[in-house]
Amino acid sequence: MAGTKFRPDGGLTARMVMTMTLLALVYVAFIVGLVLAGLNIWLVMVIVGAFALFSYFASDKIAMFSMGAREVSPEQAPELHALVDRLCAMADMSKPRVGVADSDVPNAFATGHSEKSAVICVTSGLMRRLDGPELEAVLAHELSHIAHRDVMVMTIAGFLGIVAGFLTQAGLRFAAFSGVAGGRSNNGGPAPAVIALLVVLVSAIAWVLSFLLVRALSRYRELSADRAAAYLTGRPSTLGSALSKITGDMARIPTRDLRQAEPFNAFFFAPASSRKGFSVSRLIATHPPVDQRLAQLSDISRQLGQGS
């Protein structure tokens, strides 16, 4: 985050380093486990490497395509670009590309593996529901993700889960077609079905560990972005108003639309869900409770009021 005026967050930096370190250990154990399960090490390296490179360099394109978003020019969205220009000037940071997704789900996200590839995107539903200051507050939240570089970390951290999930499904299908009977292959090694089941086991463990690590980072980074946006704009109550509007309107969005957007919850400003609070364990939530976010913004409002 060096070079910007977003408020530094040592806690976020420490968590990103810890998450990447732990994921690296999981990554090594994952490869060793697959090799011990009988897979060719070069095949493992090619599969993991290919997924890693693809998800890293194409992360912005994948997210934009999946959300049906398009990049817009200042001529196509002058008001949106004006808000981003103003915030980038305030934060003293480079301006990312700007996109709009034609979706009634009120939300925003930032993606990209580097500063040059960064994109900040809002949905048409968000722009219809928020006034200018509220939209600016949400954009500040998303810009802080780029400035903090946690978007890049989330992109890198997520690829192991993608690989593990893919191999789990492939192993299950292979085992189903090969049969689950024990025994050995013609050359004296483990039977193909046994190898497939071992791959499933190793991949599933790696997927669960990476999933929990990424979700824990995701929850903290949302609180960090709220803080950074509130201090940059000096209007935490406006961000709180936007958050209340967005989460309140989620219940009015068709379930089908919410389900289509849910895979990107970890990157959204607010989760695409009509459920209130935590209907599932806090360990698997992408965002902290709305009440916790609003309470933090209220505390910042009091701090800024006392300091004025």
TrEMBL record:
Q: Which Pfam families does the record associate with it? A: Peptidase_M48
Which cellular component terms (GO) are annotated to the entry? plasma membrane
- Protein family: Belongs to the peptidase M48B family.
- Tell me which EC number(s) this protein carries: 3.4.24.-
Q: How does the record classify its membrane topology?
A: Multi-pass membrane protein
Single GO molecular function:
zinc ion binding
The portions of this protein that span the membrane are 12-35, 41-58, 151-172, 192-214
Catalytic center residues: E142
> In which organism is this protein found?
Nocardiopsis aegyptia
Cofactor: binding comment? Binds 1 zinc ion per subunit.
Peptidase M48 domain segment(s): 74-299
UniProt keywords (A-Z) are:
Cell membrane, Hydrolase, Membrane, Metal-binding, Metalloprotease, Protease, Stress response, Transmembrane, Transmembrane helix, Zinc
For the biological process aspect of GO, one term held by this record is: proteolysis
Keyword Acetylation on this protein? no
Q: Where in the cell is it found?
A: Cell membrane
Q: Which gene encodes it?
A: htpX
Q: Which residues take part in binding Zn(2+)?
A: H141, H145, E222
Q: Which cofactor does it need?
A: Zn(2+)
HAMAP family, per database record = Pept_M48_protease_HtpX
Q: What is this protein called?
A: Protease HtpX homolog
